[in-house]
Amino acid sequence: MKTSANGIAHIKEFEGFRGKRYLCPAGKWTIGYGHVIRDFERLALWDADLTEEQATKLLMKDLAERFEPAVLEMVTVPLTQGQFDALVSFAYNLGEAKLRSSTLLKLLNAGDYDGARKQINRWVYSNGKKLEGLIRRRARETEMFQ
After folding, report:
1. Residue 58 burial (CB count, 10 A)
2. Residue 15 is among the residues annotated as catalytic for this protein
């Protein structure tokens, strides 16, 4: 399963585009459409000024190599395209580890789709602060999941 065009548009909309590195609300150096710059990428990306096309390629690589496989590996029940897109967006925003340890995933894998959907809206904090952007993002992910 791959992230749909709708799922990619959702991620792009909520991550926003920035061609130069910036410190995200979680305190991580980020570039493009929310790509967290990892240590081994610092030389290539630290002073980069990405185009939207380059940022899209980086996003697609992240989805294909990290986030789609992570969701497919973690989830043991069938998913609709919307559910998959919502979970990939969730993992992309928060990291695979947060999804892996979440009640959301436990409920989903137990077959409680409605309980899992309701968990999405609980993830609206960054460093202890409730963020309006995360409230909107989670509301949209909840709609996608349904």
Report:
1. 19
2. yes
Tokens of 55: 């940022």
Specify the pTM.
0.93
Listed in sequence order, the DSSP H helices in the chain are: 5-15, 42-45, 52-62, 68-74, 81-94, 96-100, 103-109, 113-120, 132-145
Spatial CA neighbour of 71 closest among 37, 34, 44, 108: 108
* pLDDT for position 135: 96
Q: What is the largest CA-CA distance in the chain?
A: 46
pLDDT for 43-75, tens place per residue? 899 999 999 999 999 999 999 999 999 999 999
Catalytic position from the list 13, 24, 132, 143 = 24
Name the amino acid, one letter, at 18. Answer: R
Residues making up the chain, counted from first to last: 146
Cα–Cα dist 69/132, whole Å: 29
141 given a catalytic annotation:
no
Q: Which of 13, 15, 53, 132 is catalytic?
A: 15
In tens, the pLDDT along 5-52 reads 999 999 999 999 999 999 988 888 999 999 999 999 988 999 999 999
